[in-house]
Amino acid sequence: MPAADPSPSGSPRAGRAGRPADRKPERAGLLLVLVVLAVAAMLGLGTWQVQRLAWKTDLIEQRAASLAADPVALPVFGPAATPEELAEWSFRRVRMTGHFRHDKELYQAAKSLNGNSGYHILTPFERTDLPEGTAQTVLVSRGWVPLDHKDPATRAAGQIPGEVTVTGVARVPRTTAWVVPDNRPSENFWFTIDTKVMGDFVGETLAPVYVEADATPIPGDLPKGGQTRSELPNDHLQYAITWYALAISLIVIYVVYRRRR
Fold first, then answer.
1. Which of 52, 121, 159, 215 has its CA 20 to 30 A from that of 103?
2. DSSP secondary-structure letter at 173?
3. How many CB atoms within 10 Å of residue 210?
4. CA 230 to chain CA centroid, nearest Å
5. Burial code of 11-39, b = ≥16 C-beta within 10 A, e = fewer?
6. pLDDT (tens digit, 0 to 9) for every residue of the chain, 261 residues total?
7. Complete domains list, the chain, with CATH
8. Which residue from 230, 191, 196, 220 is spatially nearest to 210, judged by alpha carbons?
């Protein structure tokens, strides 16, 4: 006589290792939760990129307006100037009168706007347009020179003596990125502008902002001013569309998958 089936009528048979053979509802529920979480994250990232788009668009418009405005006198920044106060002057057109300290030139590795290797000539500028009893030395990035014109003797005409008026763009030194090499003060060779360290090197107290000279012609045409790079990348719309498209794609894939089950 055959042995009786110990399984209750209508109940699923035990699967391997004693687990139920059919766990589809549980797995389907877990899959749905994962899909919902993933879609929510993608939609959140897309919305964040839309917010970043509005912020970046406003920043680009502000910078364009600042660069289109007439130059104004650069204020004197004291040691207590806050980062917020300095940031208000970033990329604003300014002017100042004084004389260059050509004997204290600094050399920053740089490429021209056309991509040619060379140096930016950084020169302390002692202002003479301030009220009596007020002094300020500002670092001026006078412009680009090719590698074979690093020596001032090869561009003597551009070493302007006496009192001059400089117009340019005020800049706030940026935080050094980890991919940028360290400055080499012992060689007077710089990759980033650090007004504190550079001031110590030349024996001057430099203002916490520096000025990039504009393209006003100078004798000998070197250094070449007007090297300010003001463009800002704005890919946030593309990123937002990508995240929203991924969310929609995942929803479609899930619906198709469920219909085929």
1. 215
2. P
3. 22
4. 11
5. eeeeeeeeeeeeeeeeeeeeeeeebeeeb
6. 555 555 555 555 544 555 555 667 788 889 999 999 999 999 999 999 999 999 999 999 999 999 999 999 999 998 789 999 999 999 999 999 999 999 999 999 999 988 899 999 999 999 999 999 999 999 999 999 999 999 999 999 999 999 999 999 999 998 766 788 999 999 999 999 999 999 999 999 999 999 999 999 999 999 999 999 998 999 999 999 999 999 999 999 999 998 887
7. 26-70+231-261 (no CATH), 92-221 (2.40.50)
8. 196
What tokens appear for 36 in the block?
């919902």
The set of residues, in sequence order, having a beta carbon less than 8 Å from that of 77 and lying 6+ positions away, is 85, 86, 136, 207, 208, 209
Tell me the C-alpha distance between 141 and 260, whole Å. 66
**Token pair for residue 160?**
């302007």
Q: What is the DSSP string of 225-243?
A: -----------HHHHHHHH
Longest dimension (CA), the chain: 120
Chain centre distance of CA 115: 19
